[in-house]
Design a protein that fits this description.
4-stranded mixed beta sheet, 3 domains, globular, Restriction Endonuclease, alpha/beta
Amino acid sequence: MGYEKFYWDQIKARVKRINEQFSEPEGLSFLRLVVNLITGEEYSEIDEYIVEGPGDLGADAIYFLTDDEEKRFKLFIIQTKYNKSACENGEYNQNIPEEVINKFRNLWDFFFSSNSDTGVNDEVIAKKEEYENLINEGYILDEVIFISANLGIGPAENVKAVLERWLNNNPFKDKIKYKHLGLKEIYEKINELETPFLTENIQLYGSYFEFSTPDVKGLVSSIDGNELVRLYEKHKDKLFQLNVRYYLGENKINKKIIESASNPVVRDKFWFLNNGITIICDEYEKITITSENLKLKLENFQIVNGTQTTRCIYEAYKKTGNVDGIKVLVKILKAGKDLAEKITESTNSQNPVNSRDLRSNDNIQRLLERSLLDRGYYYQRKRNQYIDKPQNKVIDNLLFAQIYYSFYLGKPHEARNQRAKLFGDDSVYSQIFTSELEPEKIIFLHLLYRKILDLLRNLKKASDLRIPKDVIDRSKLFILHALKVYFRERGYNLNAKEFFTNLKFIEQINHEILTKILSIIHVEVDSMIEEDNSLNKVKVFQRKDLTERIENKIIELVKKGEL
């Protein structure tokens, strides 16, 4: 007996919830859901990655995952089909047609050959410009990942054969990956994010050692690689929901781990070469009372350090069919919530950790979360932490940092293009997350930004609007800065509580004001490109002088009484 209807009901409910928020075609809401599951980006921020429409070459969304420290990136090209009518009729076996693979081939040729952009829409062309800018800045492309998603079961065998022939004939096949998310896979990804705590019996290997204090107890032993494979096959990424990061893919370090785990000659050295894994739980109970090869029952457990190790062993298992001989050091700790968070942060050292993730347990972050919860908002310290809550009440800390840096500190060009420094640079982080940062100010900026997004979506639907979609999508943070200048020049004290607790200032922002600001941005972008033919839109939106030119124009118009 299959559970396809249950999977479909759960996905449909989430698509409906997204659709109610954005008032758009359901297929677009499904695309938002899929992109969120793949990238972790907020639903409201996904507009910038959407390229679907006439001339899209078959792509619905294009996303760049960049590692600014290593100067490397991955390119995700996503194609979705919300085959709702088939599911409503009880048909859950829809295949991905061959034309989807052909579209991926066309997109590959467009990005990586000298193909003409005739007939290609502005959004896809802008993504190619973004790719070329990354290359010109010295970023190395690690992978191109083509993802198809529907409410069915993926490509049929003959379509898989077409894909295989294309890959085998492509000299860069090692850089190309294809993944499919069907009805079951999409449900499982949603479920992974929403049910983080697990209870499970696990088998340890060899001897063990225990240590305890009044508020924590711990056990150190080893675990067999096959036991880790079993746990991952059963629970997937639910194992790692409290970790400060997710699987980083086959980066430089992980490739070495996979090579070690795949090589039978060195597998017996794995225990010595690897840092091991750390598990936290509410309680552990000994099922067998022996001096070694202990069996434990873990209640509400998570792997808080060891995502990369566990996934790399699993990848080695997929490649070789077994991981016999691999043993991994394991530390199991029974700890309360606050201590568990400190353990999570302090034990992550084998791979570089995203700076936003490392800051997630800072006192200021936890304090803001509690303060905003008292006011009916969910302050999200970690990716998808509150995915099950009403999204209009969720305030993501990375997005908030971008908004604050743009509005109050006047640097939208950096907030947009250098997100890593908002949490990675101590001087920048301390300017945003000060001890004086009031929850009401956070709520004000959240509501102001949502008002801007709502107006922008309505503007994009206007048939007479002559501003390109890619300019609109790139302008969000610059609009915030422009509004700060607008309010300031009209004599308001932006740091006064009377300002940011008064919603009338948000109500002032209307279609007319936003259209004028967008027009200013559009004119300045075009002027800068005209003045310097080495620039394109991507480069212009990275520049400080765009911010300055917008500010000067706003000041001029306010003084003239035209804004």
